[in-house]
Amino acid sequence: MRYNIIFMETKKPKNVFKQGAITSEFIGNSIAKHQSKTNIGAHNIFLGQVRADNIDDKIVTAIEYTAYEEMANQKFHEIREATFSKFDLTCMHIYHSLGKVNAGEICLFVFVSSPRRKVVFEALEYVVEAIKADVPVFGKEIFEDQTHQWKQNT
Amino acid sequence: MQHTIKYFGMLVEATSKNEEQLQTEICSVAQLIQQLEHRYPKLNEKNFKVAIDQQLVDNDFIIKDRAEIALLPPFAGG
């Protein structure tokens, strides 16, 4: 356990971003890769999907994501470390889209795993809320007529 | 002092810039914002936070030379 903590502290931030939507194939493969980790008894997955909001009679058709990537990857890294220190997780994966993601497609994939189920329910909520609040990602909501407005997390 | 200033999201539209180099006297974040709002009046209507070298800072923070300053509009991840 001590070894794990030292290892995590010296780890460099990973790149969380993927260009475009996160495909169901990618998500399926990610689940399959965990079949060899037989100490895991529970996975929990959050998938953020772009919603076709109706705003003043205009429908959102896509969100175009940009980010302050260096700071965002550092924040994702801090969230990972905080989550591992709070919860007894075996592993955690976070992927976020950059660029255009159409309504109905997946833009955020968070995957936490643990020997037992209760911890993954709590850990997943913690991770997703921290991402929404702390990571400098920006979203341009594009309407059918190509006008746009800027999304804001609430 | 020489700084790099980065703009994101709606602030790219407000300034028509992604990034620029700026010369300033020694100053606080509040003083820098005042200069930028003078240069780009559209920034006055915007809500944003400031990060220096990738850390969020308060308005009274004194900016050191060669800082990477980022103006960050409301977050929309997820």
UniProtKB/TrEMBL annotation, chain B:
Matching Gene3D superfamilies: 3.10.20.30
Pfam entry (one): ThiS
Keyword Nucleotide-binding: yes
Keywords: Nucleotide-binding
GO cellular component terms listed in the entry, alphabetical order: molybdopterin adenylyltransferase complex
GO BP, one annotated term: Mo-molybdopterin cofactor biosynthetic process
PANTHER family in the cross-refs: MOLYBDOPTERIN SYNTHASE SULFUR CARRIER SUBUNIT (PTHR33359:SF1)
Similarity-based family: Belongs to the MoaD family.
Protein name: Molybdopterin synthase sulfur carrier subunit
Organism field: Aquimarina algicola
